[in-house]
Design brief:
With about 260 residues, this protein is mainly β. The protein contains two helices and 17 strands.
Length: about 260
């Protein structure tokens, strides 16, 4: 009779070890392949005396929030961002989120009740992580552990009082469509003018509609920007842009995403 083959305990242990290594390797690889919640393409827009807008995008849908303060002293700013509990008003920070809407790749947060001509420091809260701008450095930078990289963040500063103010809004509005012609909801739209020193931003609603007030534009000396029928306006979404003349058509031509 042929001799029976026996499996040693060592062989069984080696087999289980190999299975465990393969499982752990797959888990680590799967974890590394998850999209990062890191904010990208951070933009400052709609700067006014007491408000401004910060927008950014993420690789996967997230709930977007900001923690902000005008505290310029680094140590006090660090305390302000760490917790608001039991802190005096001059240290405590404010918090604002992108509103009551589903998690999204596009984030658009407007800060209000700010002080004129004041620089604000902020953290972007994304994916249960806080992305800092100027906690430990006077340079406007963001540090991310995932990529071990440093990336510039734009400074957030309100403007001083305008010399002249418009008594009525100057609206420009339109619609954003998907490549198949459906309404593109919750897409950040940027508006630029060659005559203005700042840019405007807006978020489309569920119907893909957006609206701007051109009186939010200001010139270099914080004066109102004058527009006429031939004034060029530039709409930008992601890397696409569309140019049209103010007054040529109302609403603006539909913007179809590629």
């Amino acid at each position: 009779m042929p001799a029976k083959k026996t499996i040693s305990k060592k062989t069984v242990w080696v087999g289980f070890s190999l299975v465990g290594i393969v499982f752990l390797s797959g888990s680590v690889l799967s974890y590394r392949q998850r999209p990062s919640p890191q904010p990208e393409n951070v933009q400052i827009a709609n700067q006014q005396e007491k408000s401004l807008t910060i927008s950014w995008v993420t690789a996967e849908p997230q709930k977007g929030c900001l923690v902000f303060t005008s505290q310029s002293q680094p140590f006090l700013r660090c305390l302000s961002f760490s917790s608001n509990r039991f802190l005096p008003d001059f240290i405590a920070s404010g918090k604002s989120c992108d509103g009551r809407r589903p998690e999204s790749n596009n984030h658009h947060v407007t800060l209000t009740d700010l002080k004129p001509e004041t620089e604000y420091f902020y953290q972007i809260l994304s994916g249960n992580q806080a992305y800092n701008d100027q906690l430990y450095s006077l340079d406007t930078k963001i540090y991310t552990q995932e990529r071990q990289s440093i990336q510039p963040l734009p400074p957030a500063k309100t403007i001083k009082e305008k010399k002249y103010k418009s008594s009525s809004p100057l609206p420009v509005y339109g619609n954003v469509l998907t490549p198949t012609g459906e309404p593109a909801a919750y897409v950040t739209v940027y508006l630029d003018s060659l005559r203005a020193a700042n840019r405007l931003s807006a978020l489309t609603d569920q119907t893909g509609a957006y609206a701007f007030d051109l009186t939010v534009f200001y010139a270099d000396q914080f004066e109102l920007v004058g527009f006429n029928q031939s004034s060029l306006l530039i709409i930008q979404i992601n890397k696409q842009s569309q140019v049209f003349r103010f007054g040529e058509s109302t609403p603006a031509p539909d913007f179809r995403l590629k």
